[in-house]
Amino acid sequence: MKFNVKEETNKVINFIKKYYQENNLKGAILGISGGKDSAVVAALMVKALGKENVIGVTLPCHSKEEDKIDAKLISDYYGFKLINFDITNTFDVFKDELNKLGNFNEVNLKNSDINLKPRLRMATLYYLAALYSSLNNKTYLVAGTSNKCELFVGYFTKGGDSVHDIAPIADFTVEEVIKIGEYLKVPEKVLYKKPNDGLSNQTDEDKLGVKYSDIAKYMNNENLDTDIKNKIEKLHNNNLHKFNIPTYRR
Fold it and tell me: Which of 17, 40, 138, 186 could potentially form a cystine with 26 if both were Cys, beta carbons 3.0 to 4.6 Å apart?
């Protein structure tokens, strides 16, 4: 079925407006990574709530300076406030404390280090949401920026970018997010930048071993090479634990 970008964009904007009105909410805070997903979510929140009710946050942690520059490009274009909250020292203090537990090599620490950063970032976003809710006497929510392809294969961190209060693009594939971005005139430098986590110096697709376009094809039951199909199924099945917390019930 053809993707009607104007119709879908307006539906998302109305979804945000309705949820905020029904729950007496006013503001939104989100991490601005310098990538397309956070840029599109920022644009949607500005359209729905007004630029004065959106706060973006850059959260560098041994990060590339270019990401912060691209984040400012987005905030300048849409006119919302942008805060820089550097968590590099926080990360380093954590690692110093970890060293007291023993000597660990980089291979042992790699996955833990990569996942610590989004967890620190999410804790910071929630802290700032509570702070600005108090300062401005209006409730701010943390907006999530994960898309449908990422979610399907579990490409997110438990307790990190999986945590948010509203998810505007979670039902859109990467290609659809780009189309929404084009419709909302997200600056091309950001919209077409190769997606990466800003943490591991690899693109998302390098880390996953599959293309986002193939994940979308799989979800749409389109023909795929058997090896690619098996990779996607393995990623999906291996990460199902991220979606459900097993809870004993009496």
Answer: 138
